[in-house]
Amino acid sequence: MESGLRQILQVKREEIASQRARTLPSPPVLRPCDLKRDPGESLRILAEIKLKSPSAGALSTRLTLANRAACYERAGASMVSVLCDFQFFGGSYDHLTLVRQACNLPVLCKEFVVDEIQLDWARAYGADAVLLIARCVTRDSLERLYKAAIDRGLLPLVEIASLDEAKWVGQLDVGTIGVNARDLDTLQLDLERASNVLASLPNSRVRIHLSGLKAPHDVVQVSQSGVDAALIGEVLMLQDDPEPLLSSFVKAAR
């Protein structure tokens, strides 16, 4: 997948010129993004919307995006994550707007962000938070993008995947860190690696487990580790009706 990641980033850089030329809509009022888990509280669940992925191929489209978002809210999700990349994940920034209009939850823009214009698009189309993947940028670029997201009112969620990344990102003034159990280079899942990386992060950070949870007992395990939140993606998108499964995850998170 390393070459695949390079290909994705090349596409992102090619998209930037056309993004700069577009007039953006006025951004909506931001929604609070409280993902910190206080003692005694439940693990927060971030439920994802994406139409396809390199690892799973085409995913369920039985529900409209609006109906799926409403379903996630009914089931007890704390946030909806929306894949905005078109070429590799079938997404769109318009999907942010559709999801936002369908529910009252905060919305996370999941993109391969390499330029501030992508933050402008995320904000304009309805995101309240944005993913920043450490592997996609340099340290200086990550610091710049992180500050730029804050300046726009967006919550930056910094994604890492290894102890090495945890070390250098941990030296930055980053409040919310997610650890991806799926390695972007190989697409392989490693829940133990993700658990070890999360455990290396200080409790003062908001810590989020990203990817790979497939059943309620996985959620119980993550919840007992003391992290603040978990993102559930592919397993929900394989369901034509994800509400029962997501409800079981939310119950397990308690």
Quick rundown:
The strands form 2 sheets. The protein has an 8-stranded parallel beta barrel with strand order 1-4-5-6-7-8-9-10, surrounded by 8 helices. The protein has a two-stranded antiparallel sheet with strand order 2-3. By secondary structure, it is α/β, with parallel strands linked by helices.
Your description of this structure?
This protein is α/β, with parallel strands linked by helices and 254 residues long. It has a single domain, classed as TIM Barrel, CATH 3.20.20. 41% of the residues lie in helices and 17% in strands. The chain is built from ten helices and ten strands. Strands 1-4-5-6-7-8-9-10 form an eight-stranded parallel barrel, surrounded by eight helices. Helix 3 links the parallel strand 4 and strand 5. Helix 8 packs parallel to helix 10. The protein is globular and about 45 Å long. The mean pLDDT is 94.
Number of helices, counting only DSSP H or I runs of 4 residues or more: 10
Shape: globular
CATH topology: TIM Barrel
What is the total domain count? Answer: 1
Query: What class do helices, strands and sheet pairing give?
Result: alpha/beta
CATH architecture: Alpha-Beta Barrel
Uncertain residue segments: none
Number of strands: 10
Termini gap: 35 Å
Radius of gyration: 17 Å
Strand percentage: 15-25%
Strand order of the largest sheet: 1-4-5-6-7-8-9-10
Helix content: 40-55%
Question: What would the average pLDDT be, to the nearest integer?
Answer: 94
Instruction: Output the CATH class name.
Output: Alpha Beta
Specify the CATH homologous superfamily: Aldolase class I
Main sheet characteristics = 8 strands, parallel, barrel
Order of helices and strands: HEEEHEHEHEHEHEHEHEHH
